[in-house]
Write a structure and sequence with these properties.
The protein is of the alpha+beta class. Strand 5 and strand 6 form a beta hairpin. It is built from 8 helices and 15 strands. The chain has 2 domains: 148 residues, Roll (ph1033 like fold), CATH 3.10.590.10; 145 residues, tt1808, chain A. The strands form 3 sheets. Strands 1, 4, 5, 6, 7, 8 and 9 form a 7-stranded mixed β-sheet that branches. The protein has a 6-stranded mixed β-sheet with strand order 10-11-12-13-14-15, sandwiched between helices.
Length: 318
């Protein structure tokens, strides 16, 4: 019987962690997944993206150990690979990331984030790769052999169901959704497009048009007001007491949740119960102030699903 290898899988991007989603569903996930399932010898994925997918799909073996990485020096869980490669469409939008390439993993979530005390993964570590550092490998194997025991064999959690596609987009945003489908693929092709669009560009081309489609008038939409990217006012004059919501933008593809803390800080500085929306222009997540900034609605204009209607209703001009 071969000695289990040790791997690491990323659980964060752009300062935003999605490790809890991996632990909750019992998976290790790698993207991008829009090209469809991995095929040995296929050409759907270039070397930059394809190597982590290939390793996950072909090189990791059932029984191998996986570390759930949260930073260059930290992990939050240790797991054991518990199945073969799968392509899972329900993970097409994990915190704004396409992560459909999967392996089932039995995770042991650590009581606290564990730090090795120095960068053991490096700043350019792939999303999934083999770990070779002796101290890290030794730590991983000791965790698997030590107490508590039993987690290595427990039943895997159920996978989340796929959300229903919306079908035809609502009439009021049909043109905007068509624009998204026309341009998003181009934005991420640096050879064809050049540098990706800035936050301000995405606000101008997508955020403001969406708000206008939801009934907000120009005078109710402020850009760069008191350091916020966008602020919405239920009435004039524009003042803290009439501000209903602030919107914080991030660059396309960086993971929108990374903007939440910044949005909360701005809301606190303005005062009042201000909801926060974080967005990259394509993906939108709404956090409700009255619920302790719990996420309450989400929409991805590139992949509209039924829950998107909740976000549109919540953001309509009152």
């Amino acid at each position: 019987m071969s000695v289990p290898q040790v791997w690491q899988v990323s659980g964060c991007t752009g300062g935003s962690s999605y490790a809890d989603a991996l632990i909750r569903s019992g998976v290790a996930l790698v993207g991008p997944g829009d090209g469809g399932p991995w095929r040995a010898g296929g050409t759907r994925y270039g070397d930059a993206f394809g190597s982590p997918v290939r390793r996950l799909a072909e090189e990791a073996e059932e029984g191998d150990i996986v570390l759930l990485r949260t930073d260059q020096a930290t992990i939050c869980a240790v797991g054991i690979v518990a199945g073969s490669y799968e392509y899972l469409p329900q993970f097409d939008d994990v915190h704004g990331l396409d992560l459909q390439h999967a392996r089932r993993v039995r995770w042991l979530e650590l009581p606290d984030v564990y730090t090795f005390g120095h960068p053991v993964f490096g700043g350019s570590t792939p999303a999934f790769s083999q770990v070779s550092g002796p101290d890290v490998v030794d730590f991983a194997r000791r965790v698997v052999r030590s107490e508590p025991s039993g987690w290595q064999y427990r039943r895997l959690p159920d996978l989340p169901p796929e959300e229903s596609e919306l079908g035809e987009p609502p009439e009021f945003i049909r043109g905007l959704v068509a624009q998204v489908h026309d341009l998003v693929g181009l934005y991420v092709d640096e050879g064809a497009f050049g540098e990706p669009p800035s936050e301000s560009e995405m606000v101008a081309h997508y955020v403001v048009p969406l708000l206008r489609a939801l009934g907000w008038r120009p005078e109710q939409i402020a850009l760069e007001w008191r350091r916020t990217d966008v602020a919405l006012f239920v009435s004039l004059p524009r003042a803290p007491e009439t501000c209903r919501c602030i919107i914080e933008a991030k660059r396309l593809g960086t993971g929108v949740e990374a903007a939440l803390q910044q949005g909360k800080d701005y809301a606190a500085a303005i005062g009042g119960q201000l909801d926060v929306v974080v967005t990259d222009g394509i993906r939108y997540r709404l956090y409700a102030a009255e619920r302790g900034y719990a996420p309450v609605a989400y929409a991805n204009l590139a992949r509209l699903k039924q829950p998107a209607l909740v976000l549109f209703d919540a953001l309509r001009r009152p």
